[in-house]
Amino acid sequence: MTTVAPSLSPEQLQQAARDHLWLHFTRMGGYLDGEVPIIVRGEGCYLEDANGKRYLDGLAGLFAVQIGYSYGEEIGEAAAAQMRELPFYTNWSYAHPRAIELAAEVAKLAPGDLNRVFFVSGGSEAVEAAWKLARQYYSARGQHRAVAASIPSHPQAPSHDFDAEQAAKLVGERRWKAISRHVAYHGTTMGALSINGIPALRAPFEPLVPEVLHVRNTNRYHRPAEETEQEFTRFLLDELRQTIEATGPDTVAMVIMEPVQNAGGAFTPPEGYWQGVRAICDEYEILLCADEVITGFGRLGTWFGSERYDIRPDLVTCAKGLSSAYATIGAVIATDRVMEPFLVGERMYSHGMTFGGHPVQAAIALKNLEIMRREKIVEHVAEEQGWVRGKLAELLELPIVGDLRGTGFFYALELVKDKETRETFSDEERERLLRGFLTPRMFEAGLICRADDRGDPVIQISPPLVAGHAEIEELVGILGEVLVEAWQRL
Ligand SMILES: Cc1ncc(COP(=O)(O)O)c(C=O)c1O
Known about the structure:
Blueprint: H1 10-20, E1 39-43, E2 46-49, E3 54-57, H2 60-63, H3 72-85, H4 97-109, E4 114-120, H5 123-149, H6 164-171, E5 177-181, H7 190-195, H8 199-202, E6 212-215, H9 229-247, E7 252-257, H10 273-283, E8 287-291, H11 305-308, E9 315-318, E10 330-335, H12 336-339, H13 359-374, H14 377-393, E11 401-407, E12 410-415, H15 427-444, E13 447-448, E14 450-452, E15 458-461, H16 469-489
Parallel strand pairs: 3-13, 5-6, 5-7, 7-8, 8-9
Antiparallel strand pairs: 1-2, 2-3, 4-10, 9-10, 11-12, 12-15, 14-15
Helix pairs in contact: 3-13, 4-13, 5-6, 9-10, 15-16
């Protein structure tokens, strides 16, 4: 086996990291004299740092490495073969075999008529592209309908008594707003950031892209105890409808939500929620986008969360799991209906990036999907999710663990000060508990998991989809010990 020759000693790496590498979402001041964590290799569900210490990866990279870290050889061969054949060509006006094959494969895996695939380089770009596509869809559709209406027998003529004034209105149709949910994370580029429902992430960059409205997410833990699931669903859907009505339905281009919302802690939908959201979008002719950057490609035990919850979205955004993060590739998947107005005459979706559908990235993603099918990874998640949940539920016995949420291989534990009242921590306690203690202590104990307080404080658990009983037991064991210690410190 060939390995990468180390060019810098561990000490030199540390120094160069401090001097030159700017980490994402990281308080760099903390590394002025502290050690930068440097991960040097991976195998299965484990990572190793520059000091030779092993860690169980309870977060799958960042909710991304579905197949774990052991397929570099096989995927590397596919990448090398593509490098030899065609190291790069663009999807800007041209196609090439790997992008075509990957688009066909993704369309086959995606539910319903989600058949049209537009490649990008990651999740934020996918969300950005989805919003732009939704915006342009309405003007393209208006033109399309106006043309259709001039042909009396056309099935898409909006009405029989169509006149020139109506035609002009259709041609000028424009919608631009997006609706997403509070505390939801959808990426960091300006459009995706504007869709984010996390005030602390938005604030430094305001004013943001107009205009996004935020509705409630499906966090049920802090709802009144006597509220039934049906009442909760109705409450959420009423709010969505009112938000659309208040802002003007004919200004709203897209509703974008994750099948299970990550930020805030794996909020699963209550019964009937997605059917209700779909019905409201249909009623107001708004495009529904399922942001599947995390839930896509197996995390919920189905290829897409949209399939699991029968969401029937018009658009899907995906990235991470598409290549198990072995490549930087993402996509917007659109239904045939969304593409229809773009198939006529000189119209086009006015968007593109040099690297969209990069052949080497596409070859890697294709190999990843082949491995996932061959190793029956999605089936593994579907079969094991009940056991995983049961194992994590053991942690509910701890006084600091208030709630366990999630499904598939995607969970969160909400930490509370008082289980009876569900009281959460003060800002100072969060800082001390999450940042000051839990994150570094888990790492010290050999577990990479995320303590997150973008909403109420939670520990996020999202292991590689190849994790077996041994890894999950180890994860629960370490988490249990660290949480007991955290409670004692409080
Ligand atoms: C739901 C969701 N959408 C979008 C993104 C942005 O993806 P990326 O970090 O690849 O830009 C993320 C990232 O975690 C995400 O979880």
